[in-house]
Amino acid sequence: MNMDQLKRQAAARALEEVRDGMQLGLGTGSTAKHFVELLGERVAAGLKVIGVPTSEATRLDATRCGVPLTTLDEIDHLDITVDGADEIDPALNLIKGGGGALLREKIVAAASDRMIVIADDSKWVPTLGKFPLPVEVIPFGLGATRRAIEKAFAECGVSGQMAVRKGKDGHVFVTDGGHWIVDAQLGRIEDPASLAKALSAIPGVVEHGLFIGLASSAVLAGGEGIRVIE
Ligand code: 5RP
User: What range does the record give for the signal peptide (predicted)?
Assistant: First the structure.
């Protein structure tokens, strides 16, 4: 089974948790896209749900798949968010934001009763940090913000190169919120909760890709089958 088939399997397993009438957060990325497509098939067959997309890309996918959409201004909570991740550790802490949607993803996950992470099992790691940590920043004053981020890294015992993310066209990648992303190659993050707190305290940081205590379960698809971790 190839990687894409594993992602679809994880998405299908998460779909088993969805019930009629639920309000759903719809994640971003190639794995979450499988979930949106499978959900669209169930909606076409009569399932009644409503979704809040975590990116403009997911909004387009959901619309194409016939999934009705709403916003967090119109409803007051979500039952389940189903989203992918770039890394998942045994405490279900995550690195997210490889697709650049971390800000909306975190807002939506935080408004949800449950967050189910779906992934192929290559995303399962003993310690977060091999995947570059995305930090969403305001372009204004970026030099000062970068220095503050470096200071936070040093205080939390990590260090590594930082680079402003570029898109495929070679230009600076701009998020759905109009911000930039700095990717930090940290290698190993021993205390992700402390680092998350330190980054959140920096004025030019809009959000970062450490999702601490937000995921309630992870559905991991691998060669040996599906594992659900809670
Ligand atoms: C987007 C994300 C994605 O969930 C993450 O990058 C995983 O993507 P994929 O399912 O394509 O591997 O955080 O911001």
Answer: none
